[in-house]
Design goal:
The complex is a heterodimer of chains A (448) and B (432). Chain A has helices spanning 7-20, 75-89, 121-138, 205-219, 236-246, 252-256, 317-323, 356-361, 412-417; strands spanning 24-40, 43-61, 64-70, 142-161, 166-184, 187-197, 228-234, 277-280, 301-306, 309-310, 331-332, 341-342, 347-349, 365-373, 384-395, 398-411, 419-422, 427-428, 434-435, 438-446. Chain A has 448 residues and is an alpha+beta fold. In chain A, the strands form five sheets. Chain A has a six-stranded antiparallel sheet. In chain A, strands 7-14-15-16-20 form a five-stranded mixed beta barrel. In chain A, helix 3 (121-138) runs parallel beside helix 4. In chain B, a hairpin with a 2-residue loop joins strand 22 (397-405) and strand 23 (408-416). In chain B, strands 1, 2, 5, 6, 7 and 8 form a six-stranded mixed sheet that branches. A six-stranded mixed sheet of chain B has the order 13-12-11-16-23-22. In chain B, helix 2 runs parallel beside helix 3. Chain B is of the alpha+beta class. At the A-B interface, strand 2, strand 3, helix 2, strand 6 and strand 15 of A face strand 2, strand 4, helix 1, strand 7 and strand 8 of B. Strand 3 of chain A pairs parallel with strand 2 of chain B, so a sheet runs across the interface.
Chain lengths: 448, 432
């Protein structure tokens, strides 16, 4: 049997070994544990307990970068990982802008860790059952569930470099999601909703159950609509999906490689004057808040679009060296097993001043989107999108009938510039992205 | 291992090991599952303790059957283990693809090339005495080419990938892959935006099988049928598609991306006829759902890794070839849309509504291909579409992808012949 090294010992050993090879290097350690309890129709179906522990090592040798990861945290496993990262660095080509962090990070109070303690399987299941009960109580046409799960977890991250950066933080999360099935006659429809938070008290199972049930029931009796151009209402959760699709445009990596429509547009209008977009890794309790990013850069709050004007990009150490300016701390790490990628933290559209319901009542006719299919196929390079959609046809805010089997299509840049209304109802979703209700002045709808 | 060439340079080289165990305890209908990175027997015992922690006192004990190791036939041989090929050879192929794509057309603006190889060692042991192992060697070569014209950017994608060794990574195959990705990007940047509305559509066999995967495949997975959640629930023996349609899932198809000797519960993979001449025959199942539905275990209990529970899902799924000449199918359409390549898709299995992306398409005028189109999506309802297909070609084309379900990804392949759909909604930006 091998001796189990502590988290700090793993990182120290890796750094010591890397120093012996005189390389510039970074060690990223992550230990994570999580539980999810999945229920269906009042019974526990699955209890999943997940654990992971590993390191990812990035070596910069002669301006060449190599990366290796391992879950074998024995002394021998760490040594092999160091050698593998070194070997990989011989394969890549030199880049004079490659960097590792050397600064010290501040002790930010981000309110991202609430210890889970001894929460039982039954307590977790009860939250899921409460969501199911609330969904059923909303409407008799709610006939069942595909799955309802409560999940929570805790993670410890340590990052250290051979040039002296050393930081660590712990975080936690919990959440609940459900997929509700509604039926009338032969027709069946599904409605999904989920929410996550750093704090257990902020999860409201009943509200989540009712929301999902509302979506499912609302789709019953849906029909197609004629091909046309029409104003579109995106409620916060659908708007978040599209904001997520826009986020790669802010990546300095994409900008430098000519893969972003925002390249060369800093200082220019890229969105309607009503739109301000912020990336805030320091948002207290934010699901993507962290004191430092996946390379050890101290994080910050950054306004990316101010009243429609592009202000800047999201950068890593390397891309900041290329575009100039301080790194923004957006080198994100999904896991120890992959290098960092530029991405947003808590990205959101700032709240407007208009009451969302009044804004929608002001539209003669509109399509309100309640679900989108195929979001993963939006091409951030061209910005083109064409998605399957379901929703409601509205006149002066009043629902006339439910719609499905249609498409909405456009370009992400066109979408940003045609935002004609921004509600005051800023909401943050389970992915850390936030948006108020948005009105798009016109989109192309494909139907009968 | 993964190598990335971007912006003309070998920019990333990654390697690593992820090793662990998932332990599942079945108590009636409830599953307790614990997983972790496991290096030795001590780790494994700790994990077993966590898996058992929430099992109530007094639960009926199960006597383990002694393990009976057996060996399953391999679906195909791996001729060249990619680990034996020097990295310099792989780097040379990345450069070759980059050069071919950049030389293709002056409008080629950016090229990203990926090569990856993965070796997945799987051991399955269960309390019924099953003990089986499988090694899945997969190679993947892919390009994203970006073309630029008049400020418009468009990308083109193509890949060579399968459960194969390095023998598929020939210079010819890589050159062809790079040309196709570059041609698609350049064509799209100059193409007309697709119209929106209802059209007759011909789906080329080259388009690959996203249609069958999304519109029908997911609806035939047993877990969704157990509680009547699929549009296909309770319909075994019934006509659910046009008599021209036969749908097969085949986890044994040699070298395909979804192929393996066994699934991730140790069940041998097989060729399963799901829909035969329009009649629903069976569902794709894992152990749990096969038992509950009273159907045979079909080798479709797949997992992304030891971190995941098995889910019922597809391997290599196809619509079987029919009897029409593909040229006749095209010639039969006066005004319509020809889909030559499909991208990703998604389905809502409860309502059957699906959408998929079209990455290369043309207008059909008087039975011939006319101008190229870009930015199209096709939407419909699975069973309705399958009952309306009125011509099925005698050809067959494959495409590869990674299917997402319940938060897990799995490598799959899909295939179909050339098909004619009389009337389907196309989503583009332009009003017809």
């Amino acid at each position: 049997m091998s001796e189990r090294l502590s988290n700090d010992a793993v990182v120290e050993r890796a750094i010591a070994s890397l120093r012996r090879q005189a390389a510039l290097a970074e060690v990223f350690f992550r230990e994570s544990s999580s539980t999810s309890v999945e229920v269906k129709d009042g019974a526990i179906e699955n209890v999943l307990v997940h654990g992971e522990r590993g390191i990812g090592i990035r070596v910069i040798d002669s301006q060449r970068v190599g990366f290796a990861f391992t879950s074998d945290l024995s002394a021998g496993g760490i040594e092999e990982c160091v050698s593998a990262a070194q070997a990989m660095s011989a394969v890549t080509e030199p880049d004079p802008d490659l960097r590792i962090a050397s600064g010290v990070t501040d002790r930010a109070e981000l309110a991202i860790h609430e210890p889970i303690g001894d929460r039982t399987v039954e307590e977790r299941a009860d939250a899921a059952f409460a969501a199911e009960r609330a969904a059923r109580a909303l409407d008799p046409r709610v006939v069942g569930f595909r799955k309802t799960s409560f999940f929570d977890g805790e993670t410890t991250t340590i990052l250290a470099t051979t040039s002296g950066m050393h930081g660590s933080y712990s975080e936690s999360w919990c959440g609940l999601s459900t997929s509700v099935i509604a039926s009338e006659g032969e027709e069946r429809q599904i409605g999904y909703h989920g929410h996550a938070s750093r704090r257990h008290a902020e999860i409201d199972p009943e509200a989540i159950g009712r929301y999902a049930a509302g979506v499912a029931v609302g789709k019953l009796g849906a029909r197609s609509m004629a091909t046309q151009r029409i104003p579109v209402v995106l409620e916060p959760y659908e708007a978040m999906s599209l904001l997520g699709a826009i986020s790669p445009l802010f990546s300095a990596e994409n900008v430098l490689k000519g893969k972003s429509l925002f390249a060369g547009k800093v200082g220019e209008a890229v969105a309607s004057g009503r739109v301000t977009i912020v990336d805030d890794a320091r948002r207290p309790g934010g699901l993507r808040s962290a004191p430092f990013d996946g390379e050890g850069t101290t994080t910050r709050r950054q306004t990316l679009v101010s009243a429609g004007e592009l202000r800047g990009y999201l950068t890593s150490l390397k891309t900041a060296a290329k575009v100039g300016g301080e790194p923004t701390g957006n080198a994100r790490r999904g896991s120890y097993s992959g290098p960092s990628r530029i991405g947003p933290s808590n990205l959101y559209v700032e709240a407007g001043t208009e009451d969302a319901a009044a804004m929608v009542r002001g539209l003669e006719r509109a399509l309100r989107i309640t679900s989108l299919l195929n979001l993963h196929t939006i091409d951030p390079i061209s910005g083109e999108f064409s998605l399957g959609a379901a929703g409601d046809y509205l006149e002066r805010g009043e629902r006339q009938y439910a719609v499905q089997g249609i498409t909405i299509a456009g370009n992400l840049l066109g979408l940003l510039s045609s935002i004609s209304g921004v509600g005051s109802d800023l909401t943050f979703g389970g992915g850390g992205i936030g948006s108020p209700t948005l009105v798009i002045s016109e989109l192309s709808v494909g139907g009968t | 291992m993964q190598l990335t060439l971007d912006d003309g340079k070998i920019e990333e080289a990654i390697t690593g090991v992820d090793q662990g165990t998932g332990l599942r305890i079945q108590i009636g209908d409830r599953q307790n599952f614990a997983n972790a990175n496991v290096a030795d027997a001590d780790d494994l015992m700790t994990l077993a303790g966590r898996a058992a922690a929430s099992v109530a006192e007094g639960t009926e004990t199960h006597v383990f059957t002694p393990l009976r190791p057996d060996t399953l036939p391999r679906p195909h041989d791996v001729l060249i283990d990619p680990r034996t090929v020097p990295i310099s050879r792989k780097v040379a192929l990345l450069r070759l693809a980059n050069d071919v794509a950049r030389r293709h057309d002056p409008r080629v603006h950016q090229v990203t090339v990926y090569y990856s190889e993965s070796i997945q060692e799987v051991v399955v042991a269960n309390s019924d005495g099953r003990y089986r192992t499988d090694t899945r060697i997969r190679t993947n070569f892919a390009l994203i080419v970006v073309a630029k014209q008049d400020g418009v950017l468009e990308s083109g994608f193509e890949a060579v990938r399968g459960t194969r060794g390095f023998e598929t990574m020939t210079e010819e195959a890589i050159t062809e892959c790079a040309r196709t990705a570059a041609r698609r990007a350049v064509q799209n940047v100059a193409a007309q935006p697709a119209p929106a509305g209802t059209y007759t559509v011909v789906l080329s066999s080259e388009a690959g099988g996203t249609l069958i995967h999304e519109s029908v495949g997911h609806g035939l997975e047993a877990d969704l049928n157990l509680k009547g959640m699929s549009v296909y629930s309770g319909k075994i023996g019934q006509q659910v598609a046009s008599p021209l349609i036969t749908v097969i899932d085949d986890g044994t198809d040699p070298g395909q991306r979804g192929t393996s000797a066994m699934d991730d519960e140790g069940a041998q993979t097989q060729r399963t006829v799901l829909i035969e001449n329009g009649v629903l025959r069976t569902y794709m199942s894992d152990r749990k759902h096969a038992r509950k539905l009273g159907i045979p275990e079909s080798g479709n209990g797949r997992r992304q890794s030891f971190r995941h529970l098995p889910v019922c899902r597809m391997t290599n799924t196809m619509i079987a070839p029919g009897e029409s000449d593909p040229a006749d199918i095209l010639a039969s359409v006066e005004d319509g849309i020809f889909v030559r390549k499909m991208g990703g898709g998604q389905v809502d299995v409860v309502s059957g509504n699906f959408a998929f992306e079209v990455t290369e398409s043309y207008r059909i005028r008087d039975g011939r291909l006319a101008e190229p189109l870009r930015g199209a999506t096709l939407v419909g309802q699975g069973p309705k579409l399958m009952s309306e297909i009125d011509m099925v070609g005698w050809d067959l084309g494959y495409s590869t992808g990674t299917c997402g379900k319940d938060g897990q990804g799995a490598p799959v392949a899909d295939a179909q012949p050339t098909l004619r759909i009389p009337s389907v909604v196309i989503g583009g930006k332009v009003q017809a």
